[in-house]
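User: Thanks for the earlier help. One more: DNA repair protein RadA. Can you show the sequence and predicted structure together?

Assistant: Of course, both are below.
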Amino acid sequence: MAKWVGRCPDCGSWGSIEEVAVLAAVASRPGATAARGASMVPTSPATPISQINGTSTRAKPTGVPELDRVLGGGLVPGSVVLLAGEPGVGKSTLLLEVVHRWAQRDPQDRALYVTGEESAGQVRLRADRTNSVHERVFLAAESDLATVFGHVEQVRPTLLIVDSVQTMLAADVEGVVGGVTQVRAITSALTSLAKSSGIPVLLIGHVTKDGAVAGPRALEHLVDVVLHFEGDKHSTLRMVRGVKNRFGAADEVGCFELREDGIECVSDPSGLFLHHRDDTVPGTAVTVTMDGKRPLLGEVQALVATSHNPSPRRAVSGMDSARVSMVLAVLERRCGVKVSDKEVYAATVGGMRLTEPSADLALAVAVASAFKDAALPPGVVVLGEVGLAGEVRRVTGVDRRLAEAKRLGFTHAVVPRDSGTPPAGMRATEVTNLGEALRVLPRA
């Protein structure tokens, strides 16, 4: 039975109880079960999807083309994006470029950059070095979440950056800074802010030693987009890789080059992974890998040397060592390329990582070329997965791979059988096994 309550049983305050209309319990309806409980009157009625205006949620470009490519066109109003990466990879530099371009695009736009790891002076020094100073970019060195909300009310930005979510503190939530409880509560509060105000929020996150996003797993479920910022400390190449994206493809990749004066987009990264020279040398082969939906040319280099040790050395860089060992075993067993008593070194050019099986055939050809000391002719690109029986299997996206190779001047492709018609001006040789591939290639 409903009755009047003057005092709240939880907080003890008088006159704070508000009447809310509640529908009759579903269980009281004919044919309904009591397990379903009661229903609440909705505050707003359900709307036919055809009557919902989708123009207000269209993505707005950030002004950084490679980042927009991964985001699916730009930042959607009210979205929350998590950018995770190792310390020093360039996350803060990238987002400084984002807020600078954001403020430049429209006089009505302003960006608020909240840093909990550095002082405002340190961020200003980096902005001076990267030429990212703009009058509509606001800085706040703050780690208290309530104060951050106060800055948002004062500045009224159209873009909010929080660097980083693990350094923020919610005073009314138990737990240490960066702990599971704190990170979950802070992310939930910032997500609610984004959804209610329409302000896109970019969060910087830390990663563990295994490369995973630090914090609770629920953190990745709360946000709309998860991006990983990757890069080798010995290389200037940086990649933003989409892991989760509610507004676009989740397997896109954006390429950047980190310099002393900032970070720049690399719209054509294939040239970074090729060693440009007039003539080929023994032990090299070029392949095309698919990084997400993006075809990238990569060069595999191999060196076979005489060994005086009972256990010859195997050194691998940029590839899966287990995959390299398998290809070496297939070469020796199926093609008579005896390398079991040789030292074998295999590497990629430019810090590229070749992880998909489509690079197997290029690796095998490079090792055979180094073993016989015979260079492949220029203009040849090699694609295919190698099986334990020595067969060459088909790979996905051959048309896109060959189109990229043709654009960069390659004229001959060695591909698995039934790979389709090559682009105009390119000759394709189809092979069924590794022995055919080595016979087809001149001097290999």
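User: Great, one quick takeaway?

Assistant: The chain has three domains: 1-40, 58-267, 273-440.
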